[in-house]
Amino acid sequence: MGAERVHSVKTAEPRRADDLTARPRLTAAGVAPNGPGVTLVVAPAGFGKTTLMTEWAAASACPAAWLGLDADDRDPAIFAGNVVAAVRRVVPGFGEGALAAIRSGGSARAVGRALADDLLALEGPLLLLLDDYHEAESVETNALLGEVIRWAPPTLRLAIDSRVMPELRLARARALGQVREFGPEALRFTRAEAAAFLAARGLDASREAIADRIWEVTEGWPVALRLAVAALQGTHGSQGPLAGIDRLATRPVVREYLIDEVLSAQPPAERICMLRLAVPARIDAEVARDICGIDHEAAAGLLDRLASRDRLLTPLEDGGYRYHALVREAFADRLLATVGTETVAALRATAAGVAERQGRIAEAIRLLLDAGREGEAEAVAVAERHAPAAEEDIRPADALRWIRMLPTALVAESPWLLMVRAASEGYAGQETASEVTLNLAEVAMARRMDVSPEERARFAARVAIKRIFNRRSQPFADPEGTIAALDAAIAALGADRSLYQTIALYLQGQLLHWLGRTGEAIER
Fold first, then answer.
1. Torsion sign across C-alpha atoms 249, 255, 258, 259
2. Could you give the 3-state DSSP secondary structure of residue 189?
3. What distance in Å separates the CA atoms of residue 178 and residue 43, rounded to the nearest whole number?
4. Which of 239, 266, 380, 496 shows its CA 20 to 30 Å from the CA of 182?
């Protein structure tokens, strides 16, 4: 073990912010007299971990010893010496046993047990707060602290904050209910807390819609709320109270914070991959594999670490993940500046391919459209591949939603998408609109030179069936002729056992029943 070196300046509790917004639900949880022995506060940068710890120290009914950690504390001798110095601020003379173990060159575990013995000898309770443990974490530091936790007296309450989940052996303590954890979700401001935060800073957040919009953009992230305040101040005039929050993540002060504090803290080899993960809104191992160019196992491991250890990804109910909206926007902006438009467009196309394979068609279309004009044609192709199938599955609303995402001019060139739109309009009782769209579909088909005669015939059959369907609520002037027309359409569809054949047979059954030919109607 290294030589003992005490940094007593690190044992002084940081100055508390003068403009703190009280959050009793968190403060009370940390100072409850019957709380567990170990409290972990794990969240990315800017979630107010240190601030919360200072509140706990100030509100504690028992002596509170503070230690701010840095990379020097990866040496267990320095770490233990600083712990002793921190406790001595409130308990003079503490830690002679631990210091002796350090001087004798004892192992990290031996020093940890000696430190636990010193804590056991204390006459009263103690709150020990370790700030920024991610800076100090090492195999030996974890071993030392693990011994302290294992042998600690019931009068010790240990609070640890970190950007990553410490690799401490806590399974036994968790099983005994001796560990409490606060993650990003707990540290986020609620809507009510965010409104109080903004109002205390003189912002016009009294209108519920404004407060809600700011909360949606920041997602209750404490540092994002502070940055939003900086962006909003001075923008109230004619621009409106929310002008300063538009594109918040691309404002220099916000972007620099997110890049410096969030991205730069990650291993250099992973940073470009983390930027690429900002391309899709939803992230999973398959898309990470394809857009990062790594194998599936490595992709899954990276996402698990970013979600469970670094807490940079939020798990979704469907098994995927997402970045905080501001992180994603800042990372996407940096990615564009780093690799250029063409590479980003290619990454969007790759992510769109994964989304399409997974059946998330709207996401695939959105990714391609965000790639610019180069992606529009492929977005139309995706819709053409899936919108007719959605109609067949009686999901016209899905198909129509995909079509509405596309540029109107491109939809007007696609007979298949126009046909689906016409069908959706007809199902909704908008027969006149459906007829207009069918006319446009026929014009678009006539302009296509890449369609076989067989496909043209099947398309014409579907149009004919749809026109008859649109007139189903009106008396047919020539029911026999209509039955024959439906027969011809069914024949043109051939082996295409589609929804249109079903509709044609249903319409024939109705007409035959009206003509009194009940047996034939039942057969249809």
1. positive
2. coil
3. 20
4. 266
When computed from its CA atoms, the radius of gyration of the chain, rounded to whole angstroms, is: 33
Residue 458, SS3 per DSSP? helix
Which pLDDT score is estimated for 7? 56
pLDDT of residue 371: 87
Backbone φ and ψ for 159, nearest 5 degrees, come out as -115, 130
In sequence order, which residues have a C-beta less than 8 Å from that of residue 406 and are 6 or more positions away? Answer: 365, 369, 376, 379, 380, 383, 417
Q: Give the H/E segment covering residue 380.
A: helix 373-392
Q: Rounded to whole angstroms, how far apart are CA atoms 294 and 284?
A: 13
Q: Would you state the structure tokens that stand for residue 2, as one six-digit string? A: 């290294």
Q: What residues in the chain have per-residue pLDDT under 50? A: 1-4, 236-239
Question: What pTM was estimated for this model as a whole?
Answer: 0.75
- The pLDDT, as a whole number, for residue 255 is 76
Distance, in Å, from the CA atom of 486 to the CA atom of 508, rounded to the nearest integer, reads 7
Evaluated on CA atoms 293, 294, 295, 300, the torsion sign reads negative
Rounded CA-CA distance 333/344 in Å is 10
Residues whose CB is less than 8 angstroms from the CB of residue 215 and which lie 6 or more positions away in sequence, other chains included: 189, 191, 194, 195
User: Could you write out the DSSP letters of every residue in 105-152?
Assistant: T--HHHHHHHHHHHHHT-SS-EEEEEE-HHHH--HHHHHHHHHHHHH-
The candidate with the shortest Cα–Cα distance to 360, out of 370, 369, 347, 351, is 351
